[in-house]
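Researcher: Quick test of sequence recovery. Tokens follow.
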């Protein structure tokens, strides 16, 4: 009897996860093509509108989810944050837009930070319903920290910045840093060597900690 009940609970949990996955997939059918434009020259120059289209799409979907049970609503919200943050960061890291000046790098960084904040605030319109889930950090909070690498003026501080970042995100890989720093025209040559020299040793951090970077694959 206990095994039968346990199996039934597992079946319901699997059904919940699959249902949440379908709901998020439905949203991504509308927003994924928009987020893929992030980091492009057209996006940076403002000839395409990404964040406004994403915001309007989310505001169209989110009211439908207020009727979900508390646990299901919170699970959907957290998975949506994670999926959208993953997609947004992946879009940034997959571009090769040359940022030749400090002002261009700061413009790029500012745009990313503002868009990430707007998307995150839009998702937050779906209230967290279970007390233990309140205050959990959104994966979008990493975007400003990533942008600090583009805004960095003194490249002699790169090693220190990487080590400091990895204290909070120990699962980030050298490939992630290389993809990000390759946007900087001033260190594009030899960037992989610079990153390799700046990365702390594997024993310096707990590699069992998993953050958004464990799910971001750089091709």
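Model:
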């Amino acid at each position: 009897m206990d095994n039968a009940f346990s199996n039934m609970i597992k079946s319901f949990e699997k059904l919940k996860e699959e249902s949440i996955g379908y709901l998020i997939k439905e949203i991504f059918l509308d927003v994924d093509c928009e987020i893929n434009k992030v980091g492009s020259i057209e996006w940076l120059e403002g000839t395409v509108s990404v964040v406004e289209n994403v915001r309007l799409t989310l505001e169209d979907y989110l009211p439908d989810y207020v009727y979900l049970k508390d646990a299901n609503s919170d699970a959907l919200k957290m998975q949506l944050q994670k999926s959208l943050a993953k997609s947004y960061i992946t879009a940034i890291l997959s571009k090769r837009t040359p940022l030749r000046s400090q002002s261009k790098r700061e413009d790029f960084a500012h745009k990313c930070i503002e868009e990430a904040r707007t998307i995150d605030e839009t998702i937050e319109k779906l209230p967290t319903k279970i007390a233990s889930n309140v205050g959990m950090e959104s994966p979008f909070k990493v975007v400003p920290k990533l942008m600090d690498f583009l805004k960095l003026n003194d490249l002699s501080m790169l090693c220190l910045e990487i080590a400091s970042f990895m204290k909070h995100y120990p699962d980030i890989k050298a490939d992630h840093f290389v993809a990000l720093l390759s946007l900087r025209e001033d260190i594009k040559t030899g960037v992989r060597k610079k990153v390799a020299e700046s990365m702390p040793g594997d024993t310096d951090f707990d590699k069992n900690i998993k953050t958004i970077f464990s799910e971001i694959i750089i091709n």
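The radius of gyration is 19 Å.
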